[in-house]
Design a protein that fits this description.
The protein has about 220 residues and is an alpha/beta fold. The protein has a single domain, classed as TIM Barrel, CATH 3.20.20. It contains eleven helices and eight strands. The protein has an eight-stranded parallel β-barrel, surrounded by seven helices. The structure holds SN-glycerol-3-phosphate. SN-glycerol-3-phosphate (G3P) binds next to helix 7. It is found in: Cytoplasm. It comes from Poritiphilus flavus.
């Protein structure tokens, strides 16, 4: 399972990278705005800054919603850095753009996916990643994890190579559950990764080991 961090915060990206388990980064316009990154040039520079911190794929989202403009914007993003993956929304022109980018060898991440049908369409169009937003489904009392398992079943039935990127992860149990269901990638906040580390028995055990060592020295 690949671990991506879902943020545009460079300190958090560095911290996750230093932990040694980071495989990539996902961003979106809201995450950019949260860090105060505004204006086209600043946003493009920020993508490059992120690419220079991590080794893996960095999703950069197009703002355009019509095919021609999406293609222009996506090609500009892809030219920024070899690690850039163009993030395209699941809309009609988005599906066409996924196919176009796929034919040109530009990596894509289909975002804002909330149903198995949308995920099937993204795979047919050649998306490298599909991003089902499980937390946002949970927010409206719909089982987000069920969507992950439905997509897994469909993709396995036909050996689609599109990777399931479980997005809108909110906490550590989402990470564990997505791992059980066979999501290829999870993207979430640093806190969701940090939560994997913690167990009180580890802390108690280590304290005792160190105390016992001190007794004998
Ligand atoms: O990057 C897309 C997705 O992970 C958004 O998450 O928490 O805003 O629903 P959230």
């Amino acid at each position: 399972m690949k671990f991506f961090i879902d943020t545009a915060n460079l300190d958090q990206i560095r911290e996750a990278q230093e932990l040694g388990v980071l495989d990539g980064v996902t961003t979106n316009p809201s995450l950019m705005a949260k860090e105060g990154i505004t204006g086209r040039n600043n946003i493009l520079k920020h993508y490059v800054d992120i690419c220079e911190i991590v080794d893996g794929d960095v999703s950069a989202e197009v703002i355009a919603t019509d095919l021609k403009a999406m293609i222009k914007e996506g090609e500009e993003l892809a030219d920024l850095h070899e690690q850039i993956v163009v993030k395209v929304p699941m809309i009609r022109d988005g599906v066409k753009a996924l196919k176009y980018f796929s034919d040109k060898g530009i990596k894509t991440n289909c975002t804002l996916v909330f149903s198995p049908g949308q995920a099937l369409l993204a795979a047919k169009a050649g998306a490298n990643y599909v991003s089902p937003f499980l937390g946002r489904l949970d927010d409206i009392s719909t089982d987000g994890l069920n969507l992950i398992s439905e997509i897994r079943l469909i993709y396995d039935n036909y050996a689609f190579e599109t990777e399931i990127l479980a997005a809108s992860i909110r906490h550590t149990m989402h990470v564990i559950d997505c791992a059980k269901l066979g999501a290829d990638v999870m993207t979430g906040p640093l806190s969701a990764i940090d939560g994997l580390l913690k167990h009180p028995l580890t802390d108690i055990g280590l304290e005792k080991f160190l105390a016992d060592y001190q007794k004998g020295n």
